[in-house]
Amino acid sequence: MNRSSIKARYWIAALSLALLMAGPFVASALYAWGVSTEEHRAIFSHYFQQVFPLGLALTALATVLGFVVLNRLFRDYVKGMVTTAERLTVMLTSNRDLRWTNRGRRNCLR
């Protein structure tokens, strides 16, 4: 896996996360606006102005927490696979005496 492919997968995951976090909030608001009458839109606008800061803060908090989880998973899973592939390539192509030491979650070469 090359670096550009890794970055592309990360940004696809990040975009998906952002859409999953903010998408339902925005879609619900647009749907409510589209099916309502002018009187309901005025009430909705007034109510939305009151709860918008809370909704925005909760969405931002959930998105930040989602990115923390995404970064942790990406670092542990995707980059770990790339490192393993690189080490196996070295073992198979240049240094046949290189050995893999299994030490639980953190593996190393000796």
What is the domain tally?
Answer: 1
Counting DSSP H or I runs of 4 or more residues, the number of helices is 2
Largest sheet: 2 strands, antiparallel
Radius of gyration: 23 Å
- What's the helical proportion of residues? over 70%
What percentage of amino acids are in beta strands? under 5%
SSE ordering? HHEE
How are strands sequenced across the largest beta sheet? 1-2
List key phrases describing it.
110 residues; mainly alpha; rod-shaped
How are the SSEs placed, and which strands pair?
Layout: H1 3-35, H2 38-93, E1 100-101, E2 108-109
Antiparallel strand pairs: 1-2
Overview of the structural elements:
This protein has 110 residues and is mainly alpha-helical. It has one domain (3-109). 81% of the residues lie in helices and 4% in strands. The protein has two helices and two strands; from the N terminus they run ααββ. The protein has helices at 3-35, 38-93; strands at 100-101, 108-109. The chain has a two-stranded antiparallel sheet with strand order 1-2. β1 (100-101) and β2 form a beta hairpin. The radius of gyration is 23 Å and the shape is rod-shaped. The mean pLDDT is 79.
Quick structural gist:
This protein has 110 residues and is mainly α.
